[in-house]
Amino acid sequence: MPNSNLISAHVDNYGRRNFRRWKTTVGVAYDTPAEKIEALCEGIRELVRRHPYTRKDYFHVYLNEFGACSLDILVYVFWAAPNWATELRERHRLAVDILRLTHHLGVEIAFPTQTLYLKRGVETVPESGTPGYASGVEQAKRAVRVDVSRLVDEVLEGSVPPPAVPD
């Protein structure tokens, strides 16, 4: 590269940036009730709001993935830290605070597991093409629709609709 290009080029000095991004995932056990996940997410948001080195106007904490071994909560924050050492120290502080919060709420941090289900006995389901197969499938679909409608009604009863997505 010629020196003239280097001199006239825009150089982005990452060491002098105002904010440093941290994107991590908190994996919680699949048997964690939805109410505890909501409480944990809101608790982490409050930790971010109160932390002295986090950017308050832009951060995200949400249940984000149904992982292979855990329900994954995205923690996406920016540090207003002058250097990497400060960033590391404050990451540590927030991570330990999140662990304390999970312990306080009784939420279990997940670790890689596999569950093996053994079925006793076999249910008889008509095979495709046999008499009664189509009516059995339609009957099962109707039953599922009724169950799901009932569940959605229970979950949404008395709740406020989510805010509109900005354009």
Question: Main attributes?
Answer:
167 residues, alpha+beta, Alpha-Beta Plaits, three-stranded antiparallel beta sheet
- Structural classification: alpha+beta
Q: Which of globular, elongated, flat, extended, rod-shaped describes the shape?
A: elongated
> Which blocks of ≥5 consecutive residues have pLDDT under 50?
none
Q: What name does CATH use for the topology of the domain at 14-105?
A: Alpha-Beta Plaits
Lateral strand order in the biggest sheet = 1-3-2
| Beta strand % | 5-15%
Overall pLDDT score: 85
Counting DSSP E segments of at least 2 residues, the number of strands comes to: 3
Descriptive report:
By secondary structure, the chain is of the alpha+beta class. It has a domain at 14-105: Alpha-Beta Plaits, CATH 3.30.70. Helices cover 41% and strands 15% of the residues. It is built from 4 helices and 3 strands; from the N terminus they run αβαββαα. It has a 3-stranded antiparallel β-sheet with strand order 1-3-2. Helix 2 packs antiparallel against helix 3. The model has no long low-confidence stretch (mean pLDDT 85).
